[in-house]
Amino acid sequence: SIMVGMRNNNDDNELELSRFAEYLLVKQLAPERNAKFYVQWVRRFLQRSPVDGALGLQDRLQVYIDDLRKQGTEDWQVSQAERAIRLFFHNFQKETEWSRPFSPSVFQPNEGIVSKDAALQKLRECLRLRHYSYRTEQTYVDWLSRYFDYLFQTGSPCEVTQQTVRDFLAHLAVVRHVGASTQNQAFSALLFFSGEVLGLELGDLREGVRAKQGKRLPLVLSIQETRDLLASMTGTARLMAELIYGGGLRVMECCRLRVKDIDFDGGLVFVRAGKGDKDRSTLLPERLKPQLRDHLMSIKELHVQDRAAAVGPVWLPDALATKYPNAGLEWAWQWVFPSAQLSTDPRAGAIRRHHISDVPIQNAVRAAVQKANIAKPASVHTLRHAFATHLLLKGVDIRQIQDYLGHVNVETTMIYTHVVKDLRTAPKSPLDEL
To answer: What is the average pLDDT across 407-422?
Structure first.
């Protein structure tokens, strides 16, 4: 009779898991290729973690996760397993005990209220596990912090629900008067936190609450205005501005350039891990080569001084520092535009020389716009727009410009064609030709 009972229980579990797989696909909670792995994680959890009256679901999950780590399971697999189990019990089976999906330390005792500090820390860990950039981490953490502050001010419970998210976004739009892109950025942060960290779904909010963004034409400087702007700048700021304009770089792409990314012989600048974590190459202006060589020679002297002072190695992406322990000390990996001061790595805690901040170049361009008497609200990014439109004026193929800019779709690059017509010489009326 015991064996029959076990067999019936297994049959019930398999039926439930089959329904769970269908639920994942219908609700689009997991890609079709990954749904089977979600089911496997839940099956292993049910088999290895039988119901124990002395242990709650949260404690059972913690034991299961600890066992996976002891077995050497990859971090991304552990994260996938945890998400699958949370979806099964909280979303699929609607287990009330899983309304508090964090470990007990994340909640205030006996209240089920999310602890702000613990939630922010968990969000950071999840973003780093998925290799999000540090800037994205800062942005998402900031929005979640603002969300909790809003809940505190309104006296609402500190929990993520459809209604509180909707109220917060309405507060941003109606009271704070933020733009559509800012509102959507806040929603993306909360959507990531609820789905990837809490294992919850915001239902129809995923698409329905996003703000509608109108189409805007980029601000572009004429060739003469660009010449006047650059002539009003000096020093490293001018070199960076000319490099941004000459290659169509984003400001942080310029700040993060390394020595190895400059190809003088090929006349190319290589952008590594740009927007969307994509690499690309763009133009290195001939007129900048002498200045850039001189700049690198002065930077190399600073590098030699840092080595003599035993300053920590330069930051390396992913696990390159582990794979190549001495790479961070090599000249090729150093920043083209290093900071003048040493700083503490916010993630590793090591003291090292990081790349320059974008603030000095932003301020320098703003001052140059005023000095050149340009009556346009131009910024550093305007130089990137000018790069694209000026190439179009010269007849460069738009597909080539798309590659230089790193746009995924040519439709994004096509927006510059609407600006070019305003910069070209206006056609004469046929009456003037009579």
So the answer is: 79
